[in-house]
Structure formats: structure tokens, C-alpha cells
Design a protein that fits this description.
The complex is a heterodimer of chains A (about 425) and B (about 675). Chain A is an alpha/beta fold and about 425 residues long. Chain A contains 16 helices and 11 strands. Chain A has helices spanning about 5-15, 15-20, 25-45, 100-105, 115-125, 145-150, 205-215, 225-235, 245-260, 275-280, 290-300, 335-345, 345-355, 365-370, 385-390, 400-415; strands at about 80-90, 110-115, 135, 150-155, 180-195, 220-225, 265-270, 285, 310, 315-325, 390-395. In chain A, strands 1, 2, 3, 4, 5, 6, 7, 8, 9, 10 and 11 form an 11-stranded mixed β-sheet that branches. In chain A, helix 1 packs across helix 3 (about 25-45), helix 3 runs parallel beside helix 4 (about 100-105) and helix 9 (about 245-260) runs parallel beside helix 16. Chain B has a two-stranded antiparallel ribbon. The chains are: A alpha/beta (about 425), B mainly alpha (about 675). At the A-B interface, strand 1, strand 2, helix 5, strand 7 and helix 10 of A face helix 3, helix 13, helix 16, helix 23 and helix 29 of B.
Chain lengths: ~425, ~675
């Protein structure tokens, strides 16, 4: 297991579907980048690599431009044993939770998946601190209740020096102002994509989305399988605040979603990319990273990606942020800190970004991409300008959440009738 | 069941249910009490601020009122409709196959057909269900081919994410569970009965409806129970294929627990669901009771009709050539064609799983148009994998070669020789390293090797528990019946009809409650020996249903045998323990093996309970795969499924060999596998 395998050097920087997109030059460059990193890892992973600027040792690969320039912290702490992560489906480059991590920090990783924040919370609370997981990945607004229930533990921030690499915009969020319990994994937003051979007009707003879903795409339309997101889409279409708790609004939302929209929906699907490629939908509400993946899947299935159009939800849409946290009672907190810290090294972070297609919150992101992944495809589905971000809103957990989930359940029942 | 004759049982004191005590304790601790808590929760109110999000301070029936809501009932109706239609379809599709296998083919073909029916169920249930997406995808090859030849419109097959897809896959998933009991029942029919019927002049149809079908009644009932109940609680099929239109009650209950965190409402739904299943079963029982009554009432008319048909046939026969030409049986060919079609149907997803494990693309369900072994490479670490596999093959082969040589010389008794095969395997195990994690060398990809190992560990442990508990209580039920039998059987029956998701939640909350109880909680908190607490939880969770199945199989086996052997042993002075060991145990051994195999497969495939109770480090293959189904399933899951299948089949063939050596015919083995 110690000798690096050649084909995997290509694989490590991008999922295979992306590989064809990369120019030969870029591939070679990335290959050396990987080697360089591995050497850095060996160089400072041997013992307590906490010495200042340890990561800034010149890259052994020798190929200039493989490492981001500028002032970055690249500390790698050594760990051992096994490290268990509980996260969303297909949410990290397999190498970063496998071989590459093992080489860098010395711990063997195991990854399990959950489907919703509620699943995660149920799992952690029912095992009473003995779930066996070290790292968990909740969405921001769920963090306060997890702290309150004692499901996650405080970071030892001295073990995560690389947190300085994170853009301050993505630190100190409302749910954890001191980043004592969490640090940004990545963030994303919500929009929709459609087959322009079926829906020939241009869709812009959530109102357009609902309209198309009830007309051209009726019976071939998918929406996210989360109550808050559907409530959100309705709010944004109707100019309401999605963190509002007005019962009249909720009633109106229910009346529309359940009585009018539900019957046109084909599936409540949070990851529609594969089904889109299979040809199951002609209109899908999707998170940006998954929508981006859909383009590669369509091509792989022999379809024509160019007929599919993507639009960010408008006039307003969501901004969600998933975070690395350490579970209370984690068996191997040392390795958990080491891995999270390692993930915050810019090159590693960008490698992961290229896999899942979400903004990882590193500072100077555009420079990083220009240097490390200049050929990144469909960057406009990962990065958004200030005007777009201004219209994105973060969810708050209010007492209306039960009602939102209830609306979703009613929609499901109605759609199935 | 033969009524037990009270007899002198020397040295036997203590309650009649003594042998069932372990099961009674087990069911009390891990089924009755946890479920009772769920019933209590169903009267509670939701309180998400607590770890257990239920407030029992103020009890209310509001949850039930909410459940009697229109939308819930729609899903409820849809679920029942899907289950009823699928059960009937399974019966209609499966009956000719079972009939064909039981009456129309030679012993050798019979074994082959049964093996082909059984084999698909040893492939992961989940991956087979996922595989149905491949032929149903509108942009898939099959659909595009149909479009190209002009059979369907440009849009392709429009079945994915519909109720029809769920219906197809559910019929597919449970067909085997229908065919096997049907076959067992038909196979038991004394051929002479059918011959007598024919000799008495009944035609083919009359024989079938007058003799064969009534005698097959128990098999039909068993088949219907084995398919209908799990269908009602099924949520995997609907989740994977159903979309919004194929929503089933199982997924609704699950989402109340996991997503909405509304345990009281979910509990109320689950309680009502058990109620509905029970009502449906009572209705079914009524039908079973009423139909013979009606047929009996109609008997005189039927007799007259039959007689007239018979007379006419005789007249025709007399008019026709008297010489009996060698009979050409078009019906038999029809049956054969049907059986082949059904078997092909059962193998479609499996072949697709196999092919897609060589998919060159990045997604399991989407064929990228080129084959590639890279996902196999992803899963296996080439060099080490070959070493391990070679050792596993070479050492047993050497052992078998030595056995052959020695057998030839005849100097070593066969009894000793028979140990050579397993011994070789064991040696290979030791060489590969018992304690060193050889599978880590083999399975390169994070987690999947552990998942496969955990699947086997969990299934094996649960099976051992199920066989011990089920064996003891099965014997007690058959041999020491009494008032306790009814209560115990009712519990077993409840275990069988309880939707898995309810067991799962009941157990999860229960494990938490008992975590700090001394002794009891220890095994779940700290684990047993090298096994983690999560593994103990999996053992408990998976053993419930499995032990109920084993109980029934053992009881059925003993009920068919009269007790004189054990009584003779007792009369000859054997202690109860000795009589049990030397008489009863050999009698039920095939039932134990059958029950064990059945539970092993069930446990290996268990997804719902395992998902909720497993912990990090005890994730099984179905749990990991279920997690992956929500987003993109990578082709290496197909690889994993193939590997799992190969290992399971290997184990199975081994057991079948052992069984055959113990003198059972191949169709008997298949029958025992089916729970006969």
C-alpha cells in the first residue's frame, strides 16, 4: 500500500468524468502536484509536525506552480489508528478519505453516510455518545441544537492551525460565532435545471420553476426531498422571508404545494443528477454541485448535455454551509483534528472541490483556482459573484420547521395519490 | 400437528416451557418491552429538545387522530393495493413454475430449477432493486433500442419513478419466496392421489382444481404470508424506484422517525400498520375458511358438471383412435417455456449487476458504453488480493488432493477424511492471518472491505443466536405444548408481522435506555471481547426475525414426526438431556440447517434495522449501500455485491455438500432451504 499507483495520480484530482475535460498539460501538472503533496506529507507527517511553517517547506515535486503561492498554513499533524467519519453521500474525493489521508496523517479512515441532518442527529442522540464516529458533517443551523444536546465536542483549536486558510467570510457564523465546534467544509446553494427540448422558454425565477413544473414538465419534475427547501422556494417565489413563522404564510404555502404542485411531481429527490442522466426528469430542483455533476453524467450516458440549462434560484435562494465537527465521545479525537486540519490545506481543499463541486471557503479562492485548477470546468456553478450571494439566505431553525416537514409529508402523500 | 400424548417422562421436572426460556427472555427484553415503549410513545407528544424526542408528561390520542388523516390513508391504501396485487401476481407467476418443477420434470432438472430460484436471493436485495433502474431508464440502452425498432415512442420507457416500477420490482423481489413454499407443498402431494383422480376419470383441469390445489393449500398460505407481510412493510423498493407516485407506508413511517423526528406520530402510524396487517390476515384467513365451505356447498353441482364432462370425454375417447399414441404434451412445453421466462426474469438484474461492475463510467446505473476493470481495481489491491486468493484456493485444493490420495489407499476412515476439506480452508485462513486484517490488503477502498466483513460477522452471530433460540423454542412448542404455546406463538407471529422499521426504532431507543444498566447494558456499550457494542446491537436486531423463522421451521419439522422415538428413548432410560442430544437434535438438524441458512441470508440483506442500530465500525454492506443510494451509486458497489454473492454462494455450496453427504436428495435440500 505504500507505493503510489500511477493511474490514481490522475484520479486523485478529479473524478473520472472530469478527467476527459482536462487538457493533457493540466493532467501532467496535476500529477506532479499530487506527488509533491505526498512528499510534503511524508516530510512533516513523521512526527509532531506542529512546528511553525512546517508545511511551507519547498515542495519536493520541483514543478513550479503546483503549490498555491502566498501565505498559507500547511501544518500536518500525525495521528494513528482508525478515524470514522459520518457524512453526506459521495461528499469527499475518495482518495482524501482513503489512501491519501492515510499517507498524510497516518490514520485509516472509515466513512459512513447519512441522508439528512435529522438522520445524523437521531444516530448521535440514540447512541448516547457511543456512536463511534469521530467526524460528523452537519449543516450550520443544526449545530446549536447539537451543542445543546451534547452531541458534538469543542475543538482543540491549537490542533487546527490551518483554520487561518479559511476566508473570514465563512468563519464565525451565527450558529457558532467562535468556531469552537465547527469549521466550514463547503457551502452551496439551490437552483434548478431543465431540458430545453421539453421546456423551450427561459426559466428565471422560482415562479417560472413552479409554472414549468405544472405545465411542460408535469409528471417529469423532481424537487428536493427536504421540507425547508420547498418552503423556501415558495417563499422566494412569493417574496416572503423563509425564516418567517407566520401561520398564514405556512397555510398558503401548504395550499399551493400540496393542492396544486404535488400532483405534478415525479420524485422528491435530493440528488437528481443520476436520474437526470437516466432520462427520468425534464425539470429538477437541485443543489449546485449535484447539478454540475449532472452534466457529466448526461454525457457519460450518451446524452447531449448542451440541451440542459441551469439557473440559480431567483429572486432569492438558499445558502447552506456544511461543517466539520467532532462528535462527543469520539474514539479518536486526535486523528479527527489532524484530518480536519489537513483538509484545510489549500491544495487538498481544492482537490476536494473539484470532486464535489462546492465552494470550500478557502480565502483568495479565485487565485487558488487560477493556480491549482486553471481548467476547472463549469466554475460558474461553483462560484458566485457578490450580487448573487447577496440574494442567498441561510436557514434558521424556527418552530415552523415541524410544519415544513409536515407539508413535505403531505405533499408526498398527495403526489402518490 | 399431532396432539401430544401425555407420557411418562422420566426425570423431567419443571415447567413445560423450560426449553423456551431463553427465547422468552430474549423476546421480552428485545421485542415486547421495547415495542411496548413504542406503543406508549404513540400517546406522547413530540419534544425535540430532549435526546429522546418524546414528552410523556401529557398523554394524548392526538397522534392517532392525525394518522386518520386523509393523506395518510391514501398512502396506506396504495401500499395495500401494491402488496395485494403483487402477492396475486407472485402467485399467478409462481404457481406454474412450482407445478412444473414438482410434477413435470426429472429429479435432476427439479434441483436445477429450484437452485435457480434460490440463487437470486443470495445477491444483495438492494443492489438488485437498484439494478432495475437500468432497463427501465428512458435514456437507457434497452429503452433506446425499443425506440429504435419503433416499438415505443420517442420518449422511451416511461416507467422509472412510477408505481408500475415498484410493482415490477416488488413482484421480482418476492417471487422466490412464493415459488419455494408452493413447490414444497406440491412436492409433498402423494402422486397416487393425482393418479387416482385421473383413474377415476377426472381430466387434467379437474385434477388440478379438485385434488392438487386443495392439497397445496398450506403452501399457498405460507407463500402468501411470506410475501404479503414484508411487502406491506417494504420501503427499500419504493425508495429506490418509486418516486413520488410509488410512496409506501414503510418509508412514511421511517421518515417520521428519522427526518421529522416525530416519534409519537411515527409510533402511532406503526401501531396502526400492524393493526391493518393483522386485519388483512384475518380477512385472508376468513377467505381461506369460506372458500372450501362454498365449494363444499356447491359440490353436488360440481359433481354433476364433472360427470357430464367425463361422459363426454369418454365418448370422445371412444370415438377417437383406440391406440394410445406416444403422448405429445403441448402443455408441458408451455409450462417449460413459462418456467424459462420466469427464471430469465429473475436473473435480469443479477446479470446487469455483474455487467455494471465492469462499467467504464462513474455511476453504477449509467452504462458508459465501455467496459473497464478499474472499479475492480479500485476495490482490490491487485498484488495482495491475488496472494490471499491464491492461498485460499491452493491450500484447500492440496488438502483435497491428499484426501483423494488417502481415500484411494483406503487406510484412513472416511469419517476422518471428510474433515480434510474444511481443515484445508482453516489452514488457509491461518496462513492468511487470523488476526492480521488480510481483508484490508484485499479491499483497497475505504470502508467497503469492512462493510463486507461486518455483514458476515453480523449475519453469522445473529444466525447462531437465531438457531439456538429458535431450535430450543421450536422443540418446546412441538413437544411440550400447553397454555403457554398460544402466548408464545402470538409473540412469534407479532415479530413476523411487525414492520422492520418499528423494531428498529424500538430497539434503538431501548439500547439507549439500558446503556447504563449494569450487566445488561455492558454488551452494547463496550462490546463483547473483540466485537464492538455496535456489533452486539446488530446481532440482537437481526436475530429477532431470524429466530422467529427458525422457531417455525423447527416446530413444523417436529410436528410432522411423531414423538414415539423420544418416548422410546425415555422408556429405555435416557435422561431428557441425552434424549434431546441423541434423538431430537438429529431429527431437527436439517431444519436447523435450513433455518440457519434462511436467517443467514435474511440477516446478510438486512438494511432497515441495521441502518438504525449500527455504529461506526459496524456498518454492514446494505447499510453502506442504502446510504449511497441517495446520491450516486458508484460501480464498485456492484463489484462489492458480486464479491458478496460469490462468497455467499461458496458457503452455500459447502453447506449443500454437507447436507447431501448426510443423505438428503437435492430437492429435499432445496425444500429445507425454503423452510419445509
Amino acid at each position: 500500500m505504500n507505493t503510489p499507483k500511477k493511474p490514481q495520480q490522475l484520479r486523485m484530482l478529479a473524478p473520472t468524468s472530469f478527467r476527459d475535460k482536462l487538457s493533457r498539460r493540466a493532467v501532467i501538472k496535476m500529477g506532479t502536484a499530487a506527488t509533491g503533496l505526498a512528499i510534503v506529507a511524508v516530510a512533516c507527517g513523521g512526527d509532531d509536525g506542529g512546528s511553525s511553517g512546517g508545511g511551507d517547506t519547498t515542495d519536493g515535486g520541483g514543478a513550479g506552480g503546483t503549490q498555491a503561492s502566498g501565505d498559507w498554513s500547511r501544518v500536518i499533524n500525525a495521528a494513528s489508528g482508525t478515524l470514522a467519519m459520518y457524512t453526506w453521500g459521495d461528499y469527499n474525493d475518495p482518495l482524501l478519505v482513503g489512501e491519501q489521508a492515510e499517507k498524510a496523517i497516518g490514520a485509516t479512515m472509515k466513512v459512513d453516510y447519512f441522508n439528512s441532518n435529522e438522520d445524523l442527529i437521531t444516530k448521535l442522540s440514540t447512541s448516547g455518545g457511543a456512536s463511534g464516529f469521530d467526524i460528523v458533517v452537519p449543516t450550520g443551523p443544526y449545530i446549536p441544537q447539537m451543542i445543546e444536546k451534547g452531541l458534538i465536542q469543542k475543538f482543540d483549536k491549537s490542533l487546527i492551525p490551518n483554520m487561518v486558510n479559511v476566508d473570514p467570510n465563512y468563519l464565525a457564523q451565527a450558529w457558532d460565532p467562535g468556531n469552537d465546534y465547527s469549521v466550514c467544509k463547503n457551502w452551496g446553494t439551490t437552483g434548478f435545471m431543465w431540458d430545453s427540448t421539453v421546456i423551450e422558454r427561459d426559466l428565471v425565477t422560482w415562479t417560472d420553476f413552479f409554472d414549468a413544473c405544472m405545465n411542460e414538465a408535469s409528471g417529469n419534475c423532481s424537487v428536493l426531498d427536504t421540507g425547508p427547501n420547498l418552503w423556501g422556494a415558495w417563499c422566494w417565489a412569493n417574496g416572503k422571508d423563509w425564516n418567517g413563522t407566520d401561520v398564514a404564510d405556512l397555510d398558503a404555502c401548504e395550499a399551493f404545494l400540496v393542492d396544486e404542485l404535488a400532483q405534478h411531481i415525479k420524485k422528491f429527490d435530493s440528488y437528481p443528477s443520476t436520474a437526470i442522466a437516466e432520462g427520468a426528469y425534464s425539470l429538477s430542483m437541485a443543489w449546485n454541485g449535484d447539478a454540475r455533476q449532472a452534466y457529466y453524467r448526461i454525457e457519460e450516458a450518451g446524452g447531449d448535455p448542451s440541451v440542459w440549462k441551469w439557473a440559480l434560484g431567483s429572486p432569492d435562494t438558499e445558502l447552506w454551509m456544511d461543517n466539520y465537527c467532532i462528535a462527543a465521545g469520539a474514539p479518536n479525537p486526535e486523528a479527527a483534528h489532524a484530518w480536519i486540519n489537513w483538509e484545510l490545506i489549500p491544495e487538498i481543499s481544492i482537490q476536494d472541490l473539484q470532486y464535489h463541486g462546492y465552494h470550500t471557503g478557502m480565502k483568495n479562492m479565485s487565485d487558488l483556482i487560477a493556480e491549482i485548477a486553471p481548467d476547472l470546468d463549469k466554475g460558474d456553478m461553483i462560484f458566485f459573484d457578490d450580487a448573487q450571494v447577496a440574494n442567498m439566505h441561510t436557514q434558521e431553525i424556527t418552530e415552523a420547521i415541524d410544519r415544513q416537514v409536515e407539508i413535505l409529508n403531505k405533499m408526498k402523500a398527495k403526489a402518490g395519490a | 400437528m399431532t396432539a401430544a400424548v401425555p407420557s411418562r417422562r422420566r426425570g423431567w421436572r419443571g415447567p413445560k416451557f423450560a426449553l423456551a426460556i431463553p427465547s422468552i427472555i430474549w423476546y421480552l427484553l428485545f421485542f415486547v418491552i421495547p415495542i411496548a415503549f413504542i406503543v406508549v410513545y404513540s400517546f406522547g407528544t413530540k419534544d425535540t429538545t430532549k435526546l429522546l424526542p418524546v414528552d410523556l408528561g401529557k398523554l394524548t390520542t392526538g397522534n392517532y387522530a392525525e394518522v386518520f388523516d386523509e393523506t395518510f390513508f391514501k398512502v396506506f391504501r396504495a401500499t395495500l393495493r401494491i402488496a395485494v396485487v403483487a402477492t396475486l401476481l407472485c402467485l399467478l407467476i409462481g404457481l406454474p413454475v412450482a407445478y412444473f418443477a414438482a410434477f413435470k420434470v426429472s429429479e435432476r432438472w427439479r434441483a436445477l430449477i429450484l437452485a435457480l430460484v434460490v440463487v437470486p436471493s443470495f445477491t444483495s436485495f438492494l443492489i438488485r432493486t437498484v439494478a432495475w433502474r437500468i432497463p427501465l431508464a428512458p435514456k437507457g440502452e434497452f429503452s433506446q433500442w425499443l425506440v429504435d425498432i419503433g416499438l415505443i415512442g420517442d420518449k422511451g420507457i416511461q416507467l422509472l419513478e412510477t408505481q408500475t416500477a415498484v410493482q415490477i420490482a416488488i413482484v421480482y423481489n418476492y417471487l422466490g419466496f412464493m415459488i419455494l413454499p408452493l413447490f414444497v407443498a406440491l412436492d409433498r402431494i402423494d402422486v397416487r392421489m393425482r393418479e387416482a383422480s385421473k383413474d377415476l376419470g377426472a381430466g387434467r383441469v379437474a385434477t388440478f382444481f379438485g385434488v392438487t390445489l386443495p392439497l397445496a393449500g398450506p403452501g399457498i398460505v405460507a407463500g402468501v404470508l411470506l410475501t404479503f407481510i414484508p411487502m406491506c412493510g417494504d420501503y427499500v423498493t419504493a425508495t429506490v424506484l418509486g418516486g413520488a407516485k410509488g410512496n409506501m407506508i414503510g418509508s412514511m413511517i421511517a421518515s417520521q422517525f428519522s427526518q421529522a423526528q416525530n416519534w409519537p406520530l411515527g409510533s402511532a402510524m406503526a401501531v396502526l400498520m400492524i393493526g391493518a396487517v393483522l386485519v388483512a390476515l384475518v380477512a385472508g384467513a376468513l377467505i381461506v375458511w369460506v372458500v372450501p365451505w362454498i365449494t363444499r356447498a356447491l359440490e353436488p353441482i360440481a359433481q354433476r358438471i364433472r360427470r357430464s364432462i367425463h361422459e363426454r370425454n369418454r365418448a370422445v375417447e371412444r370415438a377417437a383412435a383406440p391406440a394410445r399414441a406416444p403422448r405429445f404434451e403441448p402443455i408441458k412445453i408451455l409450462f417449460a417455456v413459462w418456467a424459462v421466462l420466469v427464471l430469465a426474469f429473475m436473473f435480469i438484474p443479477i446479470l446487469l449487476v455483474f455487467r455494471h461492475s465492469f462499467n467504464g463510467g462513474t455511476s453504477f446505473a449509467i452504462w458508459a458504453g465501455r467496459t473497464s476493470t478499474k472499479w475492480w481495481g479500485e476495490l482490490f489491491d491487485g498484488g495482495s488480493a491475488w496472494t490471499v486468493v491464491t492461498i485460499f484456493v491452493v491450500v484447500p485444493v492440496i488438502a483435497l488432493a491428499i484426501r483423494r490420495l488417502l481415500a484411494h489407499r483406503g487406510s484412513v476412515p472416511t469419517r476422518v477424511l471428510n474433515y480434510f476439506g474444511p481443515l484445508g480452508f482453516l489452514v488457509a485462513f491461518v496462513i492468511n492471518g487470523f488476526s492480521t486484517d488480510w481483508y484490508h490488503d484485499v479491499f483497497d477502498f475505504a470502508g467497503i472491505g469492512d462493510a463486507i466483513r461486518n455483514s458476515f460477522l453480523a449475519a453469522f452471530g445473529a444466525t447462531v443466536i437465531a438457531v439456538v433460540l429458535g431450535g430450543l423454542s421450536g422443540v418446546a412448542l412441538a413437544r411440550r405444548p400447553g397454555r403457554w404455546t398460544k402466548v408464545f406463538m402470538a409473540t412469534v407471529f407479532l415479530i413476523l408481522v411487525t414492520p422492520e422499521v418499528m423494531d428498529a426504532v424500538a430497539l434503538v431507543t431501548w439500547f439507549q435506555r439500558i446503556a447504563d444498566v449494569p450487566v445488561l447494558g455492558y454488551a452494547f456499550k463496550s462490546g463483547i471481547g473483540p466485537f464492538s457494542g455496535g456489533m452486539s446491537k446488530l446481532w440482537v436486531g437481526q436475530s429477532l426475525y431470524a429466530s422467529a423463522v427458525v422457531t417455525l421451521i423447527v416446530r413444523a419439522r417436529l410436528a410432522g414426526l411423531d414423538e414415539s422415538l423420544e418416548e422410546a428413548a425415555a422408556d429405555l432410560g435416557a435422561t431428557p438431556a441425552r434424549a434431546f442430544r441423541q434423538i431430537t437434535l438429529p431429527l431437527i438438524s436439517s431444519a436447523l440447517v435450513a433455518g440457519g441458512l434462511l436467517s443467514f441470508t435474511l440477516c446478510l440483506d438486512n438494511a432497515v434495522i441495521s441502518t438504525l442500530v449500527s455504529e461506526a465500525g459496524s456498518t454492514t454492506f446494505p447499510v453502506a449501500l442504502l446510504g449511497a443510494t441517495k446520491s450516486t451509486i458508484k460501480p464498485f458497489w456492484g463489484v462489492g455485491a458480486v464479491v458478496l454473492f460469490v462468497i455467499t454462494m461458496g458457503a452455500l455450496l459447502f453447506v449443500a455438500r454437507v447436507l447431501r453427504r448426510s443423505g438428503e436428495s437435492s430437492s429435499q435440500i432445496a425444500a429445507t432451504l425454503a423452510g419445509g
